[in-house]
Amino acid sequence: LGGASELAFIKEPSDVIAVRDRPLMLDCQVEGEGPITITWRRNGVPVPLGARAAVLDNGTLLIRNLQKRRDGDESDAGEYDCAAQNRYGLLISRKAHVQLA
């Protein structure tokens, strides 16, 4: 019936040049039959949520203050994608490249 239960992206994350120590928001808005679970990955690894990062109610990823440490490659730069899942399936967004200015 009309495919209303199918997941579809309304907004996908886009490439961005971010500023260190500033917040970054990446869009991921989905329509489809709920409940819908949104998860985010950076370079294929789930983004740890907590004090520094959160997924807002609309699916947007908020990183409160971007980090780039000189030791090693501990940085928030990379390729981000979001995955939306409901009981009908899983949809993965395009990859957004986040670079630090």
UniProtKB/TrEMBL annotation:
InterPro entries found in the cross-reference section: Ig-like_dom (IPR007110), Ig-like_dom_sf (IPR036179), Ig-like_fold (IPR013783), Ig_I-set (IPR013098), Ig_sub2 (IPR003598)
Pfam families associated with the record: I-set
Entry keyword set: Disulfide bond, Immunoglobulin domain, Repeat
Residue ranges annotated for the Ig-like domain, each copy included: 5-99
Gene3D superfamilies: Immunoglobulins (2.60.40.10)
Statement: the UniProt record of this protein carries the keyword Lipid biosynthesis: no
Keyword Metal-binding: no
Family of this protein: Belongs to the immunoglobulin superfamily. DCC family.
PANTHER family found in the cross-reference section: BASIGIN RELATED, CELL ADHESION MOLECULE DSCAM2-RELATED
Protein name, entry field: Ig-like domain-containing protein
Species whose genome carries this gene: Cirrhinus mrigala
Lineage: Eukaryota, Metazoa, Chordata, Craniata, Vertebrata
